[in-house]
From TrEMBL:
TM segment ranges: 146-170
GO CC, one annotated term: plasma membrane
Main location per the UniProt record: membrane
Gene3D superfamilies: Immunoglobulins
Protein name: Myelin protein P0
GO biological process assignments: cell-cell adhesion
Length: 203
């Protein structure tokens, strides 16, 4: 193979890899509560129509390094881990038709902390980076900033509504009280006038 032919072949390979690539999306980081069933979300988009050979691989990488562990594999049917650590705790929760390759880790524990890698292949679309989720298992999930913002807005709205209701009720009762006082004064004047007429008549 001449240098020119080799260069042309290399360019063709590069163009094929650029055009035929699969994109995988994950949340990058996830904090979850100890003892809960945790969904590891992984979605993908492919430049090729989905084939029967589409596959997904989930890999677990311990936080302190160490050897990667095959966590889950799906190709036409699910293949669950043989390792005792994750045995009977991994569930397929994806749908290839909607571009979903998610799984569920049941009863997640603190020793499940680590990096979870999601790789999807849809031949001939097999190129692309793996999705990555760094999972932190904690005893108590902290409030997220969004949840805190929603809570503050909700409480503020309730306070404003209560203030408006209080102002409306105050004005309503004040108006009724003023009206009642005015009626009472008029009644007193009428009674005084009636008595004056009676005294004049008797005189």
């Amino acid at each position: 193979m001449t240098a020119l032919n080799f260069f042309a072949f290399a360019v063709w390979i590069a163009l094929f890899a650029a055009v035929s690539s699969i994109d995988v999306y994950t949340s990058k980081e996830l904090q979850t509560k100890n003892g809960t069933d945790t969904r590891l979300k992984c979605t993908f988009s492919s430049s090729e129509p989905l084939s029967d050979d589409v596959s997904v691989s989930w890999i677990f990488r311990p936080p302190a390094g160490g050897k990667d562990m095959s966590l889950f594999y799906y190709h036409r049917q699910p293949f669950y881990p043989m390792d005792v650590r994750f045995s009977n705790r991994v569930l397929w929760d994806g749908n290839f038709k909607s571009g979903d390759a998610s799984i569920i880790i049941r009863n997640i524990q603190q020793n499940d902390n680590g990096t979870y890698l999601c790789q999807v292949k849809n031949p001939p679309d097999v190129h692309g980076e793996m999705g990555e989720i760094v999972v932190s298992v904690v005893d108590q999930v902290k409030f997220s900033e969004i949840l805190l913002l929603v809570l503050v807005i909700g409480v503020g709205s309730i306070v404003i509504i209560l203030i408006v209701i209080a102002v409306v009720l105050f004005r309503y009762y004040r108006k009724n009280r003023t009206h009642s006082t005015a009626v009472s004064v008029m009644e007193c004047r009428e009674k005084l006038n009636d008595k004056s007429h009676d005294l004049n008549a008797n005189a």
